[in-house]
User: Fold these one by one.
Assistant:
Number 1:
Amino acid sequence: MPSPSSSRAVLLIHGGAGTLSREAMTPERADAFHAGLAESLRAGHAILAAGGSALDAVTAAVQVMEDDPLFNAGRGAVYTTDARHEMDAAVMEGSARRAGAVTSICGPRYPVLAARAVMEQTEHVLLAGDGAERFCRDAGLEFCPPDWFGTRNRLDALQAEMRRRAKGLADDGDQSRKHGTVGAVALDSHGTLAAATSTGGMTAKRPGRVGDTPVIGAGTWADNRTCAVSCTGHGEYFIRYAVGHELDARMRWGGQALTDAATTLVEQELAAVGGSGGLIAVAHDGSFCLPFNSVGMYRGFVRTEQAVLHTGLFRDGERQTPA
Amino acid sequence: MPSPSSSRAVLLIHGGAGTLSREAMTPERADAFHAGLAESLRAGHAILAAGGSALDAVTAAVQVMEDDPLFNAGRGAVYTTDARHEMDAAVMEGSARRAGAVTSICGPRYPVLAARAVMEQTEHVLLAGDGAERFCRDAGLEFCPPDWFGTRNRLDALQAEMRRRAKGLADDGDQSRKHGTVGAVALDSHGTLAAATSTGGMTAKRPGRVGDTPVIGAGTWADNRTCAVSCTGHGEYFIRYAVGHELDARMRWGGQALTDAATTLVEQELAAVGGSGGLIAVAHDGSFCLPFNSVGMYRGFVRTEQAVLHTGLFRDGERQTPA
């Protein structure tokens, strides 16, 4: 087993792939996204730098994005065709492949904490719908009313999409409607990997539709022997390609390096079949990558040895901020 | 790509792992299980022998078990602690990794047809709860009232378990409470693989609990390049080990033979961590296996070239019946 020094600790985050087209991105809006990503990184970095766990770091990083209405998770979650929110989240910790996930919930302020409570307080991995919400109440998680999650922008996006459909127009190919997920992966100073993902799903999604986020092995995966992975993109493809577990398998059985495996899978294989999106992944040796095949992927990373927050939205224009 | 002749076509089924202890198995009850398994095999075999598709064969085989109250899927599904039914099902077809699944539904007579409708009539892979049921109504699937799914035996099992818990007794280790899933995998004369799985879950499960059945990559998987897999057992372990996709990966990246990979995974690795259960799997070359680490696994297989229905409940006592 590798035993990375604390200087190897690293945190990566994503805030969705292509949730705004390049044209629609004003300088003010770009600043807001960079700032939101930096705040998320800062929260996780503080934990890792103090010798905390990867699980705590990814949870904290995701909570910041769940609270930020810019991101499609928690507050700011998109709407279903019923004008409701259905949120999914998952966490996984790599030392013993412990995992927890929730799907189709609306209530807990932090869906990632709901997923973590499933992992830590039940013998189960996945809870759905009303039963999941009931468990969250019993677990004492903070709840918010449905209105708390909604924003004017998301409602406008729903109405625009419903008008488009009412006119019988074909899918506009707008990646912004399909991509919106937040996630984090980390390697801590103890050599443990963890991943967390949270999402409101797709704007105007069919009620009940579940993407890859809460599917352990697809949108979320962590194993200390290989890597931790969190995905964002067109979830159905990420399920059918079992993306998270596929990277694990390419390392474990194929002897591939994480970066080679992830880049090939995202930029070539998923791109070839129309599976738009991206992922963040970190390996047990501290190597990491953030490949995407969409116009952009809101993302960031920080190494504890450098304490510099790297954030990016599109392929160029990366910014660096002191932690 | 392999191109098996029609003589290579094969169907395997399971009706759960250890759903009755050996001691509780009377000769009459054993006869009933063998007959139920044989009827399921017969339905799928008729399709394969006529040159039909693996997808049609596994669907038909699972429907027979969903209708049979002996098996924990469809009619005969177990109860949650709320004395309700929450059923899950999935299908996957190996030529293009198409997949469909439903979770936490009660309504469609054949949950496997609900999963198949998701695959064939939507752009989605997984639908949950009320939204899934609404889709099934819109798709014209046959519905049955909740009472139709219930049986006296399952209600007795729920009440016995609730009494046990009320007394504060620890988990009795009764595998029969945790294992009950039906499934089928097939290779057809065109060289296509398919898998289908359906379940009522665990007796006295927490409402909302989702096991491995509808998790593509865990309880259900099919890819023509490798294998088709359907699992039964303690679902949380099968999710955390991504069992279906793990077999695919061991063949594709590890160069392992299906039988070696599946036997090692089930009989050694899952057994070692307490992941009781088993699986059925068939490879693109027609090789297949039915490993389990539990007391029994209700199972069967038929090769079209032989037209003999093989059925088994425990390790010994396999029966053969003409198709």
Number 2:
Amino acid sequence: MEAGRHLGGVAVREALALDNLCTMDVHKLFAIKPGTKVRLLNFDPGDTGEFSDKNAAVAATVENVKKLAEVQLKLFAENKRALLIILQGIDTSGKDGTIRHCMSGLNPAGVTVTSFKKPTEHELDHDFLWRVHQCVPGKGEIGVFNRSHYEDVLIGKVRKLAPAAEIEARYDHINNFEQLLADSGTIVLKFFLYISKDEQKKRLQQRLEDPTKNWKFQPGDLEERKLWPDYIKAYEAALSRCSTKSAPWFVIPSDKKWFRNLAVSQAIVDTVKAMKISMPKSMLDLSAVKVV
Amino acid sequence: MEAGRHLGGVAVREALALDNLCTMDVHKLFAIKPGTKVRLLNFDPGDTGEFSDKNAAVAATVENVKKLAEVQLKLFAENKRALLIILQGIDTSGKDGTIRHCMSGLNPAGVTVTSFKKPTEHELDHDFLWRVHQCVPGKGEIGVFNRSHYEDVLIGKVRKLAPAAEIEARYDHINNFEQLLADSGTIVLKFFLYISKDEQKKRLQQRLEDPTKNWKFQPGDLEERKLWPDYIKAYEAALSRCSTKSAPWFVIPSDKKWFRNLAVSQAIVDTVKAMKISMPKSMLDLSAVKVV
């Protein structure tokens, strides 16, 4: 039955027997303590923690995905809480890849991934949290945001897409909104995938040179790259002002994709473990029921 | 790198080297030819085709999921066509399990699963296709419907939830709607998970007896079970009238879960193979671009 191990549901029964291939405390290492004034200069995007070996990190990531698949079924059955994972990062930082590596293996029936693009006219007719609020996960679900309301204090700030005072007010609105989600049973985890400027250059060049990656290339990415220092500043403000106890920011070193995947998956697994989700008991008296 | 094989993206590069563990022609065996008058008595819900061995079927299913993960990335990059998978079946027939087994392993960023429940007041204020239309997959996406607009000619017909003439008109509306999707580049596959009445009894009893399955038990299922012959008739009408070349119905023998999973995954893989999706070329002249 080896072959069945990786099919979500089947994996569930075996997951409890898994080892702990990664004991790294991602919260301690990479979560931003509320109130910290973040300077990204103090973080190393090339950091790989205790892992020097790619193979070991990949194995630990696979293990994490299996553990998450096991918890997912319980989360769904419990039908009380939700998990929202927010991914942010400069172009090419690996938001898509993180989702593919950390979420493939889960049952897609319980996962909603929303990729936020440039807002439509209709969306712009509303406050900046309106379109985002519609996409938060319901009870029992895992929601993933590929970009998010943070764009409104990132590109929004860098490109001056709204008056400065309006953007300034958004940090509080974001904190209030995330607190509402937390109070309603949604665990919020926010990952900033931090790459170096050199690593971005390498990845953009790959998109130009590798025919299988050409389709990913957007000329606009080069324009954004010119604003690198402004984006760093905007990220520092968001990380400093919006990392809270109930919705922490993590700065994930992401120059090494395999370490990025491991760190994100480990943070999620540690979080859901702490949620102590168990299979619910039926509220009905089933002993009296007869099937004819 | 064995450990990385099952992580969607990583699996892609290895998928082409896979064997063909299942050569069963699911279209020929289980697709309903347009115009056929379907009698479910002529189908065996316990059929397992050429497979007597559960292990072999599970291995072939895993292989199919890997193939599908490979095609998924191309479908996304191509950004031209979509795939819509519709699952219908009497209570306990295994719609959830089919999704878990056939879809876990895909990148959830490209898969949207919609479970249609009893319509809300707001939904009932619109035509029966309104809420469904909003959930069809966009270009490059895979959509899965757990129940669908067919409920409106199934429970709708059995429970007389609308005037008979209105329900009668729905078959044509459904065919027109699915033709619209097909004309817009969406491949539609519809699976009726066919179980026997005895098998349903067994599964309902399991939900009562197994504490880990108690949460799935709904007293309403027993009421629906009493209407078994009416549901069979309603399914026969839908299968007879709405299996078209561009949106075929399959009657999947589903008493054996492992065969059900294999047959559904095989039908999907055969379909996407016939789509001949390839990585798109960039429309831009990338040779002139410099990253600085």
